[in-house]
Amino acid sequence: MKKRTIVALPGDGIGRVVLEETIRVLDAAGFEADYVEGDIGWEFWKKEGNPLPQRTLDLLAKHKIALFGAITSKPKDEAAEELSTELRDKGLIYSSPIVGLRQHFNLDICIRPCKTYVGNPLNFIRRGADGGIEEPEVDAVIYRQNTEGLYGGVEWSNPDKQVYDAFMTHPKFKKNFGSVPKEEISISTRIFSKGATERILRAAFEHAKEYSYKSVTLCEKPNVVRETSGMMYKMALKMQKEEYPSIELWNTNIDAQMMWLTKNPENYGVIVAGNLFGDIISDGFAGLIGGLGFACSAQMSADGIAVFEPTHGSAPKYADFKTSIVNPIAMVESACMMLDYIDEKAISTKIRRAVADVVAEGKVRTYDMMKMSGRPDVIEKGAASTHQMAEAIIAKINQ
Ligand code: NAI
Ligand code: MG
To answer: Could you tell me the CA-to-CA distances from 172 to 91, 167, 175, 178, 229 in Å, in that order?
Structure first.
């Protein structure tokens, strides 16, 4: 096995501890790598006025693959107040380094798998026809377009005249908003491009093909959002027909999908959506398999830059506990996605099996798995610490 160089971006708060424990799990599973640490997050905003320094971008451009913990973001005004004194009044404006990474490297594909671990007490259950309890096995992977759509940042409040006049040329704008004073109007756009739409669709179909899913579900709203969702739907139909005829294309609307996922989540496999709907639906599915302690993700670009991270944030309220109590599984699973991506599938399989064994056995559970509220005394009450959970996974790997 070739020794890899991985950029480790711990970030803030619990991002640091989950990444550290995950690297121990990777070592135990025999993954050989040098980890070079990159600076990102709140500390660097406060000290340098930039939460995503150029040196970090250079590091990722060079080594291409990163494991990322989590960062803290705060509203603009609070961010300005926490800047070190010599940096104040220089007009620096805080913006999220994750969004910055996404934009800088065009990490346009976001993948969020949500797979049930048998024995996880947080698994979704429902009542069956005979009145008994059913625990459907969820195995969904959400492919979310990560750079465009409603999160593309093209927006205005009280738009300048040129923009306003352009909107007034649209009959619907004129009819519905033409009599509203310009100062009272806010506009956020939802722009899809063909190239990016094609890439996310293809990634979803390829995943279905590689892992033998029988269908790809496009989850948008083409009957109402006719231009963007409509374009995506037409492109999906064409791609399925011409390139993936053996995979079924299903089409659901985002609102109905949010209902279906709590009725029959086991029916869905690969799901593909634009940015906002993909974000919503992946959180919905993550809730069915245990929530933030289990939700992993990957973001990648066309030219081979890839960042693997848990979906959760820096959970500042737990960051300073003497013994860390948070669940490292979401980060460990994100690292497994990295291993799949760089073709180290034997190691990812080994780690996933170890995690599955720990969860199924049920002896070692972090506070979230015990449905406790997160306080320092959860350890006394029998919850495992972050470190103990990693140790349990390592023990299974070594068995
Ligand atoms: P959060 O995900 O940090 O925490 C929300 C709650 O989820 C926690 O209080 C905790 O109860 C639970 N939780 C999160 N991770 C967990 C884990 N590994 N194990 C067990 N329980 C866990 O979201 P929140 O509180 O909304 O945001 C905190 C900070 O994180 C903010 O500054 C926010 O901007 C940032 N954030 C960063 C993200 C990232 O780095 N990708 C994503 C989301 C939020
Ligand atoms: Mg989200």
So the answer is: 39, 9, 5, 9, 18
Q: What is the largest CA-CA distance in the chain?
A: 72
Q: Looking at ligand 1, which residue's alpha carbon is closest to its atom 42?
A: 313
CB 101 within 8 A of CB 107: yes
**C-alpha dihedral (338, 399, 328, 369), degrees to nearest 10:** 130
pLDDT tens track for 8-27:
999 999 999 999 999 999 99
Q: Copy the structure tokens of residue 367.
A: 């506070």
User: Which ligand is closest to the CA of 375, given by its number?
Assistant: 1
Q: Which ligand is nearest to the CA of 318?
A: 1
Residue nearest atom 43 in ligand 1 by C-alpha distance: 313
Pocket of ligand 1 (CB under 6 A): 70-73, 98, 292-293, 309, 312-317, 326-327, 330, 368, 374
pLDDT at 1 over 80: no
Q: What residues contact residue 232 under an 8 Å CB cut-off, 6+ apart?
A: 192, 197, 201, 218, 220, 222, 274
Nearest-CA neighbor of 72 among 294, 316, 309? 316
Q: Residues 72-112: pLDDT tens digits?
A: 999 888 999 999 999 998 889 898 999 899 999 999 999 99
Q: Are 381 and 325 in contact (CB under 8 A)?
A: no
187-219 b/e (C-beta count within 10 Å ≥ 16 → b)? eeebebeeebbebbbbbbbbbbeeeebeebbbb
Task: Tell me the C-alpha distance between 227 and 230, whole Å.
Answer: 5
Confidence (pTM) = 0.95
* Structural domains of the chain in order of their starting residue, each with its CATH number: 1-109+303-399 (3.40.718.10), 124-151+190-288 (3.40.718.10), 155-188 (no CATH)
Q: Best mutation site among 314, 325, 369 for ligand 1, i.e. most ligand atoms within 8 A of its Cβ? A: 314
Least Cα distance to 383 among 368, 397, 395 occurs for: 368
Burial of 264 (0-12, 13-18, 19+ CB in 10 A): exposed
